[in-house]
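May I ask you to comment on the folded chain given beneath this request?
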Amino acid sequence: MIKITGLKETSEKLDDLAKKAGELDGQHNVSVDELLTSSFISKHTSFSNAEEMLEASGFKIENQDDFESIPNDKWDEFISSISDFSDWQAMLNEAGKEWAAKKLGF
């Protein structure tokens, strides 16, 4: 006879994961600050944080309007030149994946 242990703990972990996954279902409004954490920026660029990255862009970015006024192609070129992403959307997509994984406890 084989005795199996740890099933209760595994079941509880799976229940917790299912609960967290349910909380992530649907659309979420997540700020760029929450997505572009220091760990994300330092992992994918040579900068320590998003503020350093923005300062290095050469664009005057003091508020949301300033950011939105940057031509998309110029911002994509910048992101491509300082990161391992082809463009801004690719960076945001990966940041979103990492944010979701963190919320799930991975």
In short: The chain is about 65% helix and 0% strand. Helices lie at 7-24, 32-35, 38-44, 50-56, 64-68, 72-82, 88-104.
